[in-house]
Amino acid sequence: MKTEAKILICYNAPVSIFPVYNGKPVTDEPKETDLSEKNFLRELNVIKRSLAEFYTEVETLAIYRDVQKSINNINKFNPDVIYNFVESVEGIASYEWCIAGLFELLGFEYTGCNPASLGNCLNKARAKNILNSRGIKTPQHITLKPNARFTKKDIRTASKNAGLKTWKKPAYACLLTRIPYDTKISKELLHRIEQAETYLIGLGIRAVRVRTHDNLARIETEPFYINKIFKEKLIGKITTQLKQYGFSFVTLDLEGYKTGGIEQIT
Fold first, then answer.
1. Domain assignments of the chain as residue spans, ordered by start
2. Top-level CATH class of 3-124?
3. In degrees rounded to 5, what are phi and psi of residue 186?
4. How far is it, in rounded angstroms, from Cα 209 to Cα 220?
5. Which of 132, 163, 211, 229 could lock onto 218 through a cystine, CB 3.0 to 4.6 A?
6. Domain at 175-265, CATH class
7. How far apart are CA 192 and CA 199, in angstroms?
8. One pLDDT digit (tens) per residue for the chain, 266 residues
């Protein structure tokens, strides 16, 4: 037996996000560039049918920026409960909390978070401050102004100031970038490279790549660390250790570390 109740499913009307940014009408855009939430409509009927099995009246309502029209439609149906699926209005996510506020002003019960919660969640910096004030650990953050640049150097500086141990962790690309093209890849080869680089990093050689050419290991690192290797007489120690990993020959590239180093000899 169904419960005597009127259920209204509200959702953000599917529109392309592109007009929000470039001002072009939707009709001017090719279909393949439409990044709207139209896929949700496929699920909407399933949700409606499921609710209709338990309640006497179930309707759906798409929400646009025409607020007065939305108010009129909601009041006309006069639901007992609004199922709130509105996450943006015509592509603008910051309006999500406004719709929950609208439901409250109209005096209707609705599912989901209240306007204050949604507003705080949309403001990440404020949300983190609230969590911290309650003793809930949350990662530190930096708020950037529109169009502000935040370089890799800035990230390392901010990480260091925050006391993160990873502030000086070297960039670590995929191990496949150490291997020439048309080379058969094996777990053993990748493990050998990983062992060699881990060992060198353990010696304090932070920015390093071990390029492979058959059984030859070519070590690339920055000039500072090249000097360190010679100054601390590490060549013999490194050679012995890398040969234990399976390399027959160990060389040091005097040109130093460079991105795409493997491509220059392939």
1. 3-124, 175-265
2. alpha beta
3. -140, 160
4. 5
5. 211
6. alpha beta
7. 11
8. 899 999 999 998 876 544 544 444 545 544 444 444 556 777 888 899 999 999 999 999 999 889 999 999 999 999 999 999 998 888 888 899 999 999 999 999 999 999 999 988 888 888 888 999 999 988 877 777 778 888 888 888 988 888 888 887 777 778 888 999 889 999 999 999 999 999 999 999 988 999 999 999 999 999 999 999 999 999 999 999 999 999 999 999 999 887 765 555 55
